[in-house]
Write a sequence for this structure.
């Protein structure tokens, strides 16, 4: 009896796998996995909302052609094992044709493995670590990459006059560690001393030893590759202890309206990185950017962030591939969709999106911004080198 | 001159302070006390003796409210107390002093005693003085942490704490356990002082000879039944008791259960 | 030199912060034997209450504290009553039930306050020491004085008042306390009120020192468990000593070895102390 049940289950699984690409009556399912609860919920929700806007927009534009995309949203609780489990459920049970979403490499990595095993394309919304795209995974793509973050930071710092000593603090995640290593190496080559280089666990209540060390060793600039919440504590302590630095740059978490809202004038003058701002879109996409902000505001009652835009763009990439597949006969097999995605040529408010052979975005590059009088202002980016 | 009776009513001299009638107690589903009836007279030292596991502790715990009896009545100074909780029974003046030590280790001797007066806080210093008069040993160590005392002194603290609660009936469970003969003498002496001061003591224990020679009245308990009753000194001479507790006769009567 | 004095101040304010986080947990555990895994969530709740009052209604810390305390006392009682009403109560039961409550609370916060990280923005005042090179901020002063005040207040309660002695007796031996006529439920209620007050003080400070987030409760819970393990039942002063020790250990480690060693060293300190305490306990029991 038991053996029979196992056979039956195996039979079902087999069918489940082989028919996964079949699509029921014009409804195409796409799965989104994000940290909607737990430590990373803030950014996970932002991505998730950006994705929803893209889907809504798509269905509105293509509803007449009989092509309807249904979004299956899942919460990974900010935990890798849950993320993996959700990915498997989405593919095997919900029969999604593609996966999107994901914040931080520790959550994106496991999902990319499941995607490869089941031959379903996965376009990650926010992932940086180089290692993830070196595993020859033809089903894994992402709209962000490490280079697009390290390069602008290094360029920005090297343009600074007489910068001799910097301090680097980074979160213990793989992405943040790689960022810190890369920046440190490049700065050293260019003759800038990294006088303090430290890793910190997310969520600690006290950064004063690090700050005191920065002061003692004469660091002029703090590069802080930590997450949103840690900036709140770190920046406040830096201000309170009057650490004499010329600048503070945080690649993640600083260029946020909500950061300025919480920190008030303590955020003044900080540098951050962002791929997009509501009022600052890639040339030629101003209209799309404006429409995105408007839809987002209408649906969620707040202004989208750069992280939401990442979610939106990753969804756009998949939707574009789905549209192509639909136009070419409506077969949504994993390898075909992955091929369409690989040939993506898309202009988005975040810049133009094309993938290289590893699945990394070719042109992804963030810009350096500064908080001035409570506003986020671009100070260093591709098409405005003259500024500042 | 002894009686082997299942059920009997006995009245000592003076008034009964405690009257227990047809008391039955179970641990879970296992019955341990079967319809036991006895009374304790005011101002006496009454001993409960019997082999291990005979039910001495169960009777004491039932009286002080720690175990709810299945059946039976417990009347203390004319009031039914079998349905009351520990707290109310302590308030009425029955204090149970458990076997072994039961002190608050990280508090001083005096604090231990003070806490005993939780329900009767009036005239605190007067009652402290009384306890120190019964156990002068404690007065010298009143500021010492209770955990630093010897076993005998810790037991004095426990009994003293019971006295602080203004108790009229002290239920002592195996008070001589682990004490030296000298310390045991000391406690017997204290029990007599207490008796003189009008406090009734119901003492259960294994130290049969010592207990019975100190007691005014005594009961033998076997397998949850009272099988013998009488004045302490008389009971000590009783053949059946000697048989059961000291194993003087190798033959064990059928139906009387195990003998330690 | 000034660096070290500054480091010292940082250590003590951090240690005081840890002590305040642990105090409510330790009190509840000592009196009721409940391991309240929803402890951190209650601190976060008090933090959110203070956040709303201070940011939206622009009240000051001293006005919000009584409200935060009142809400914490009530919510702690609700949480604990869920556990105490179980027929068969063990520490394992309390772990499971309070963990469930913690998850429910986290989701409630997510729905009510959103996943945004929040802090109470405040302008600290500074007090210069040693000729202006070393400073102490008002929040650090609050942390140190409030933790000292709470511990001192509890010390006086425990040592000098009758009810406090009865509470200590209940903590040390619940059975003996019952025999002494101490009403255990009333003592548990008192323990909860005290624990709730401690949580109500910790919450608004947590929102200043760290940040509020629906899932942030786990950190204070872990901190509280560690310190309570370290101090043992009902040993309030050792809680403060333990908090300071942890603060000094973490801060000096982070300064001399780097932040990455912080957790490692504090874990080592804990293990060494637990071994030491175990050995000493065995000696005493002989």
């Amino acid at each position: 009896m038991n053996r029979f049940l196992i056979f039956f289950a195996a039979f079902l699984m087999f069918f489940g796998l082989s028919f996964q690409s079949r699509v029921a009556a014009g409804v195409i399912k796409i799965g989104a996995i994000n940290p909607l609860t737990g430590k990373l919920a803030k950014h996970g929700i932002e991505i998730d909302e950006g994705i929803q806007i893209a889907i809504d927009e798509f269905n509105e534009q293509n509803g007449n052609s009989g092509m309807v995309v249904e979004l299956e949203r899942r919460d990974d609780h900010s935990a890798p094992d849950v993320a993996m489990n959700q990915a498997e459920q989405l593919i095997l049970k919900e029969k999604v044709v593609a996966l999107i979403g994901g914040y931080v490499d520790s959550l994106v990595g496991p999902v990319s493995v499941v995607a490869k095993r089941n031959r379903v394309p996965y376009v990650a919304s926010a992932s940086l670590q180089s290692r993830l795209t070196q595993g020859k995974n033809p089903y894994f793509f992402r709209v962000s990459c490490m280079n697009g973050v390290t390069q602008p930071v290094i360029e920005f710092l090297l343009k600074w006059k007489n910068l001799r000593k910097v301090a680097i603090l980074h979160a213990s995640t793989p992405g943040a560690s790689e960022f810190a290593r890369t920046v440190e190496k490049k700065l050293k080559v260019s003759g800038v001393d990294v006088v303090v280089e430290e890793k910190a666990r997310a969520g600690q209540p006290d950064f004063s030893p690090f700050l005191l060390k920065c002061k003692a060793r004469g660091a002029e600039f703090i590069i802080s590759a930590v997450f949103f919440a840690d900036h709140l504590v770190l920046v406040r302590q830096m201000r309170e202890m009057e650490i004499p630095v010329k600048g503070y740059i945080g690649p993640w978490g600083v260029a946020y309206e909500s950061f300025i809202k919480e920190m008030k004038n303590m955020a003044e003058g900080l540098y951050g990185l962002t791929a997009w701002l509501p009022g600052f879109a890639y040339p030629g996409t101003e209209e799309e950017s404006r429409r995105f902000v408007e839809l987002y505001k209408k649906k969620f009652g707040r202004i989208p962030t750069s992280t939401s835009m990442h979610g939106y763009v990753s969804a756009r990439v998949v939707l574009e591939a789905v549209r192509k597949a639909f136009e070419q006969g409506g077969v949504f097999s994993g390898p075909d969709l992955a091929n369409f995605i690989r040939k993506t040529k898309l202009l988005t408010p975040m810049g133009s999106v094309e993938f290289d052979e590893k699945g990394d975005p070719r042109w992804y590059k963030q810009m350096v911004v500064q908080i001035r009088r409570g506003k986020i202002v671009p100070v260093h980016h591709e098409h405005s080198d003259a500024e500042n | 001159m002894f009686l082997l009776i299942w059920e009997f009513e006995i009245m000592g001299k003076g008034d009964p302070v405690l009257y227990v009638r047809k008391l039955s107690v179970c641990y879970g589903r296992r019955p341990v006390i079967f319809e036991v009836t006895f009374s304790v007279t005011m101002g006496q030292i009454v001993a409960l003796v019997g082999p291990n596991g005979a039910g001495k502790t169960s009777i004491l715990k039932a009286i002080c409210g720690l175990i709810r009896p299945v059946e039976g009545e417990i009347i203390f100074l004319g009031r039914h107390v079998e349905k009351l909780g520990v707290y109310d029974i302590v308030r009425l003046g029955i204090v149970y002093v458990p076997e072994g030590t039961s002190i608050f280790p990280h508090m001083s001797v005096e604090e231990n005693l003070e806490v005993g007066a939780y329900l009767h806080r009036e005239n605190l210093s007067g009652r402290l003085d009384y306890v120190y008069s019964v156990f002068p040993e404690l007065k010298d160590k009143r500021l010492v942490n209770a955990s630093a005392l010897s076993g005998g002194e810790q037991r004095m603290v426990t009994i003293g704490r019971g006295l602080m609660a203004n108790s009229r009936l002290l239920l002592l469970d195996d008070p001589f356990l682990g004490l030296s003969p000298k310390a045991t003498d000391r406690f017997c002496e204290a029990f007599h002082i207490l008796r003189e001061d009008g406090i009734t003591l119901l003492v259960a224990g294994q130290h049969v000879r010592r207990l019975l020679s100190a007691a005014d009245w005594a009961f033998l308990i076997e397998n949850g039944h009272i099988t013998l009753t009488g004045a302490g000194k008389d009971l000590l001479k009783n053949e059946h008791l000697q048989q059961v507790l000291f194993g003087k006769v190798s033959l064990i009567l059928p139906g009387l259960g195990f003998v330690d | 030199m000034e660096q070290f004095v500054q480091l010292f101040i940082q250590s003590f304010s951090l240690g005081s912060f840890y002590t305040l986080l642990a105090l409510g947990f330790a009190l509840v555990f000592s009196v009721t034997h409940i391991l309240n895994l929803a402890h951190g969530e209650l601190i976060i709740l008090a933090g959110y209450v203070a956040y709303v009052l201070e940011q939206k209604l622009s009240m000051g810390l001293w006005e919000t504290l009584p409200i935060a305390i009142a809400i914490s006392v009530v919510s702690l009682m609700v949480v604990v009553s869920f556990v105490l009403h179980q027929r068969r109560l063990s520490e394992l039961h309390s772990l499971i039930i309070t963990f469930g409550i913690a998850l429910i609370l986290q989701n409630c916060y997510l729905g009510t306050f959103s996943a945004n990280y929040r802090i109470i923005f405040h302008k600290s005042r500074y007090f210069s020491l040693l000729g202006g090179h070393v400073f102490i901020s008002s929040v650090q002063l609050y942390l140190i004085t409030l933790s000292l005040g709470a511990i001192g207040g509890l010390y006086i309660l425990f040592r000098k008042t009758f009810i406090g002695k009865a509470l200590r007796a209940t903590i040390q031996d619940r059975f003996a306390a019952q025999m002494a006529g101490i009403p255990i439920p009333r003592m548990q209620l008192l323990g909860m009120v005290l624990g709730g007050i401690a949580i109500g003080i910790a919450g608004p400070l947590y929102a200043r020192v760290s940040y509020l987030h629906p899932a942030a409760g786990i950190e204070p819970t872990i901190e509280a468990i560690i310190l309570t393990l370290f101090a043992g039942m009902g040993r309030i002063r050792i809680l403060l000593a333990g908090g300071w020790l942890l603060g000094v250990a973490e801060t000096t480690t982070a300064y001399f070895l780097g932040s990455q060693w912080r957790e490692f060293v504090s874990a080592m300190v804990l293990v060494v102390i637990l071994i030491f305490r175990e050995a000493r306990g065995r000696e005493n029991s002989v």
Summary: Residues 148-274+367-380 of chain A form a domain with the Rossmann fold fold (CATH 3.40.50.2300). Residues 11-25, 384-388 of chain A have pLDDT under 50 and may be disordered. The two ends of chain A are 76 Å apart (CA to CA).
